[in-house]
Amino acid sequence: MGQGFALMLKRLRKDFQLSIITLMGLFGVLGITPYAIYRLLNGNILVGISDTVIVSSTIFAVLYAWRTGDTVKPGIYLASVFSIAATLIVINLGVNGLFWIYPLILFNFFMVSPGKAIIATLLVLGSLVGYAFWVPGSVFDSHYQMVSFLVTNLMAGVLTFIFAYRTRHQRDQLQILAIHDPLTGARNRRAMNDELKIAVSSKRRRGTSYGVLVMDLDHFKRINDEFGHPAGDQVLIDFVELIRNSARKEDRLFRFGGEEFLLLLPDTDAAGLEAAAANLQKQVRNALKGPAGPVTTSMGGAILRPGETWASWLQRADQCLYQAKSAGRDRSIIDEPPAPPTTEGPAPQGA
């Protein structure tokens, strides 16, 4: 029990949007359930049913988010349900229901993107104003009250939009910084470990073939020693740009050491990995220049084997890189796939 709770807390700390959906869902269930019970017991069936729909939808969406890891669809679903239910409640209760629109605005900005939230807010306000003109006195006691309500809601919506947009932008920037190398823009070792684990899982469940190339710039230390670290940094930046332009769009590049990089290649067999290594080495040899002339790279590669761990896979590629450097550098060595098991029986005995 305690271990399960600890795992839940860990997941909430890692997934911001899941934590928001869970927290808002908890507040929604605890805050609305008493109203639903009270209204159903007192014969206010329409509003009571609306409250019940909100509570049940909230529970369903939160469970869906936890089960699938998808927080986008539950967020849109909850924002839609809450907006429709709040509109019906206001139409039924009149002025007494208007107070629910303010928390609805905040709720929607937490559930969906700022753009979708502002659209939802405008649709709710437009529906209420339209109904108020259609049935005078049903929602607002006077036009002055309606204008005051619209002005305060639009002010709340605009301010919340600015806050939500700024917060989302800062969170996106933090996520980028957390998984990218600040110098070259390549993904860092933390992201690499996660991606390799995902590749192993994909191999196990769907049989997807993956290859990796571990790359090391030859004699890079000399560049730093003779020309300074700014010159070495520029070589690293140029190398990353060159690899990105030469690799496929689906290939992912990581920097996990000073001058060591890893390229993850999905849907690649041994022959494809060898061809990719040869092409990348040619591109680097011909195009990558340092202060003292051309810069080359050594590579080691390996195809992920069934049932293999990501650490073992990386170690095999790293061993091939070591062999390439020991053999003279500026070359690539790809780990050979294991030989298929023989099915032939013993040779027949002669008569």
Describe the model.
By secondary structure, this protein is an alpha+beta fold. The protein has 2 domains: about 1-180, no CATH class; about 190-335, Reverse transcriptase/Diguanylate cyclase domain (Alpha-Beta Plaits), CATH 3.30.70. About 65% of the residues lie in helices and about 10% in strands. The protein is built from 12 helices and 7 strands. It has helices spanning about 1-15, 15-40, 45-70, 70-95, 100-110, 115-135, 145-180, 190-205, 220-225, 230-245, 270-285, 310-325; strands at about 210-215, 250-255, 260-265, 290, 295, 295-305, 330-335. The chain has a 5-stranded mixed beta sheet, with helices on both faces. Strand 2 (about 250-255) and strand 3 form a beta hairpin. The chain starts with a helix and ends in a 17-residue tail after the last strand. The mean pLDDT is about 90.
**Strand/helix succession:** HHHHHHHHEHHEEHEEEHE
Q: Biggest β-sheet: count, sense, barrel? A: 5 strands, mixed
Tally of strands: 7
- Count of DSSP-assigned helices: 12
**SS strand fraction:** 5-15%
State Rg. Answer: 30 Å
Question: Which residues sit in consecutive blocks of at least 5 with pLDDT less than 50?
Answer: none
Question: What would the principal axes of the Cα set say about the shape?
Answer: elongated
- Count the domains: 2
Helix content: 55-70%
Which strand order do you get reading across the main beta sheet?
A: 2-3-1-6-7
The structure class reads alpha+beta
Ends: how far apart?
Answer: 71 Å
Kindly report the average pLDDT value: 88
Features:
single chain, 351 residues, alpha+beta, Alpha-Beta Plaits, 2 domains, 12 helices, elongated
